[in-house]
Amino acid sequence: MNGIEAHQRRRGLTLRSPERPLPRRKRFWRQVSNHSVALISLFLAATSLGYNTWRNETTEVQRNLRQASFQVLVELGELNQIVLYRRYFQAPTEPGAVERRPDLVFDDARSWVGGWGKVTMVRDLTSFMPEPLPSHGSALFSTWETDAAHLNSGSAERRDQASTALLAEIEGLRSATVQMIDSLR
User: Fold this and answer.
1) Cα(137)–Cα(169) distance, integer angstroms
2) What was the pLDDT predicted at 64?
3) Over the stretch 23-57, which tens digit does the pLDDT of each residue have?
4) pLDDT at 15
5) Separation of alpha carbons 122 and 141, rounded Å
6) Residue 42, CB half-sphere, CA atoms under 13 Å: how many?
7) Residue 130 structural domain
8) How many structural domains comprise the chain?
9) Rounded (to 5) percent helix, strand, coil in the chain
10) Is residue 124 part of a domain?
11) Distance CA 159, CA 165 (A)
């Protein structure tokens, strides 16, 4: 026995002789036992990374939905104002009214173009959101498409029907949007 082996025996660090190696299964479990802290740390790190990635992605999706929802609510509020403006404040139709007040015709055209822009923006934003918002957005667009021209109708009855239908669609989408925001807690 050489000096190194004698020193190891005194310290309790006996080595197996090369002619009798440990069985394969025992070697594996001895390695696991020797490196258990490192393996546990690796497992915890991988688990934490997975959870953190999932949580970040979920938070980002919810943040994007909230931002889009608030933009939809702003657009709906402005569209609501346009509908009410066109319902209650009609440009005068008597002869010479346009010459006296050309701003009334401009306001009417501006609200017409602005309404189309807002209803299109709402439809596009809601198309990326969860149901029932895409169907509400499409229904609002369809209702605007069919009824917006009647907001300037000479007939008060037809104007009221058109504005009532549009306001109902706006309110339905607004309620669905608020419920969706509330569900993102």
Assistant:
1) 9
2) 93
3) 777 788 888 888 889 999 999 999 999 999 999 99
4) 54
5) 8
6) 6
7) 68-183
8) 1
9) 80, 0, 20
10) yes
11) 10
Q: Which candidate, 112, 119, 103, places its Cα nearest to that of 85?
A: 112
Least confident residue range of 60-74, 82-96, 141-155: 82-96
Band (pLDDT 50/70/90 cuts) for residue 89 is: confident
Q: How far does Cα 148 stand from its chain's mean position?
A: 29
* DSSP sequence for 116-183: HHHHHHHHHHHTTSPTTHHHHHHHHHHHHHHHGGGGG-S-HHHHHHHHHHHHHHHHHHHHHHHHHHHH
Q: Distance (Å, rounded) from C-alpha 21 to C-alpha 23?
A: 6
Any idea what the CATH number is for the domain that residue 161 is in? 1.20.120
158 within domain boundaries: yes
What's the confidence (pLDDT) of residue 30? 85
Q: Identity (one letter) of the amino acid at 77? A: G
Residue 18 lies in a domain: no
Q: At residue 39, what is the residue type?
A: L
Alpha carbon distance 142, 145 (integer Å): 5
Name the token pair of 141: 């667009």
Nearest to 126 by CA among 176, 164, 80, 162: 176
Q: How many of the other CB atoms lie within 10 Å of CB of 171?
A: 12
Evaluate whether residue 57 is within a structural domain.
no
For the chain, the farthest-separated pair of C-alpha atoms sits apart, in whole angstroms, at 124
Tokens of 173: 């989408």
